Amino acid sequence: MKIVRAIGIGTVIWALGVSFYSLSFLISILEDAQQQANLALFVIVMPLVWFGSKFYYKKDNRTHGYWIGQTFFLVAATLDALITVPFLVIPNGGNHYDFFTDMGFWLIGLEFIATTTLYWYARVYTKSRKSV
Predict the structure, then answer these.
(1) Which of 25, 78, 89, 92 could join 85 in a cystine, given CB atoms 3.0 to 4.6 angstroms apart?
(2) pTM of the model as a whole
(3) CA–CA distance, 66 with 86 (Å, rounded to integer)
(4) Rounded to an integer, what distance in angstroms lies between the CA atom of residue 48 and that of residue 76?
(5) Using CA of residue 114, residue 74, residue 42, residue 2, what is the dihedral sign?
(6) What does the alpha-carbon distance between residue 24 and residue 37 come to, in Å, rounded to a whole number?
(7) Digit-coded pLDDT (tens) for 29-40
């Protein structure tokens, strides 16, 4: 696995995800702005991780998608702990414990891993099987 590449792509995915999450507060569609932001993040994570996986696999096709997804998610969780929670969550009355024990956080983590694994099976594994 090209770890620096995976960390870099994971950082970009996290930055875009936080941006979409924050921008979703500006457009009022649902009554509960927090629920709306979480829903927006859930929806945007799939294409972000899919394109991140596509970009990653341009240079490496040996690493299973599970490991790439886990790396993307660990990068996002680390950046959440260092940046998102202190600057976005704590000022609004939250804390690290509430953030990391929220079911939505873990659902999005599962989404990271499932999307990269699905990408690997759909785009990488099938091509490697055809060339054998």
Answers:
(1) 89
(2) 0.92
(3) 29
(4) 12
(5) negative
(6) 5
(7) 999 888 899 999
In percent, the amount of the chain with pLDDT more than 70 equals: 97
Helix (H, G, I), strand (E, B) or coil at 25: coil
Helix (H) or strand (E) holding 37: helix 33-56
Two structure tokens written together for 122: 């759909």
* Domain range list for the chain: 3-130
Inter-helix orientation angle 65-79/3-23, to 10°: 50
Average pLDDT over residues 69-92: 97
Give the residue carrying structure tokens 């936080």.
Answer: 18
Q: Are the C-beta atoms of residues 37 and 25 closer than 8 Å to each other?
A: yes
**CB-based contact 9:79 (threshold 8 Å):** no
Q: What percent of the chain has pLDDT over 90?
A: 83
Q: What three-state secondary structure class fits 31?
A: coil
